[in-house]
Amino acid sequence: MTDDTPFHALPDFGVVCIEGQDALAFAQAQFMSDVASLADAHWHWSGWLTPKGRVIALFAALRVDGQTLWLVLPDADASDFAARLQRFVFRSKLRVGVPGGLRLSGAFTAPAQARGAQAAITGTDCTELDLGGDGVARTLRISTCPAGTDPEASARWVQADMVHGLPRLPPAQSEQWTPQQLSLDRLAAYSVKKGCYPGQEIVARTHFLGQAKRGLVLLESTAPLESGSEVHEGGIAIGKLVCASAGLALSVLPLDRDFAGLSVAGQSVAARPLNTGLAR
Description:
By secondary structure, this protein is of the alpha+beta class. It has two domains: 8-165, Gyrase A, domain 2; 172-272, Elongation Factor Tu (Ef-tu), domain 3. 14% of the residues lie in helices and 32% in strands. The chain starts with 7 loop residues before the first strand and ends in an 8-residue tail after the last strand.
């Protein structure tokens, strides 16, 4: 890292900008959160689903102003995501693209001005989001300012996401899980009331019929874990790891278990409670 800042680069993050007269209406029709409820300079968690209700990508949706929305993507390739989204623009008056020159960085300190869902936007040079949750203060910065690489801090950032119930979705985990399976109600990341969007019928049916039988469970091990690995109970596979960092992982498991005697790749793992405070 540089000597004069606590910020470290977040290489897995990118930004997609949706801008124009129809930008917010387009986002409202495509994404699973109630984008129309956002005020200027406010953000919340959201995502884009397949028609079958599987999560393509999770992101922070930031309303910059009445015609501009930024999507802050933790894992999906921003250019690929923008190109895929562009296919659904049709005649809408908007532009979808990746802003040039922006760098994303993080710091384990409280933001100077941003609080909760309120972002701090300083012209086009710097935007800060409050990514803090219970037990940890964090600032995410979107700016033209470079930040040094710090693998240890980057790994700690991923783990902070995970322990607060924000699943990190590597490419192999995209389009595999429903919002309920990823327990995204904990982050207030989807709406069952706002109207139609891709996958909305699946999400609403699961919600109103009470059919969510699987959800996120935080697992801890003394050995490194890998996303995609199966979780076993008594020798029987009962779920998979969605994401992992060192000895921590988020897994989708049946919710009617006591999570005793779990193992991954022959290694014992223990279930741990998820922290709160990351919902916006």
